[in-house]
Please model this.
Amino acid sequence: MASQEPNTGLSVTEEARLRRALRQRLQDLSRAGVTHLPRARLAGATPPAQPQATPVAGRNGAALSPEQTGGDVSEREGSRSTRSRQGPERQLAALARTVSECTRCPELAATRTQTVFGVGNPRAEIVFVGEAPGADEDRQGEPFVGAAGQLLNKIITACRLTREEIYICNILKCRPPQNRTPSPEECRNCIEYLHKQLEIIEPKYIVCWGAVAAQNLLQTSQPIGRLRGRFHQFGRAKVVCTYHPSYLLRTPSAKKQVWEDMKFWRKDMGIDLEK
Model:
């Protein structure tokens, strides 16, 4: 006896339209670097209680002002409310579509294979920020997949993490020709997209890999050697700066300093990498 298709209650035309919409949705999520979706809450389930916001203290123990912690509390709560309604997956997918059509840097837009938006957990506590895509990243559409990316994977594993737990992106979403260093103008053109990504994800920690990432995110001209070894602040996130994996490939002796940086911020998260 021939098997029967399940009755969906939809006409052939309606079902085809639904399939197209679902396929487009999955493509949008893939373009945004979303690697998994959270489980839907069961009907009738009680949502978890939301913790009360507490003042953020500075190094001297005094409470920081709204300006020092990234804006007015009501504004931040409104942002969280919007984030909860729309979901970071949907917001990142929409932003990725915008980035894919960007032509602010004519040279980069003309020479790129595709934009490299970001990849990982859209609700990550940790965001890694690099410099710009290289040839491998431009070809595959994912950050840190070349030789530097392979070294980064080893660092992630040593930190007792997986790529699926974090979110990885770059200052630039397009590859500079010949893998040259991004120009200040290119960084200015693209930094808005990174700020929006961080606003959507709301990480607790940001790791800047290399001087281009650190200087542009923190808006400083200090060299990476002076920025590393301590926490900086971006909004409500703690920022750690360290050397780029590509620099470690050229200067293996710097691996010791990077490992010290990894132990520093992981210990702040309650993870002692020496045990």
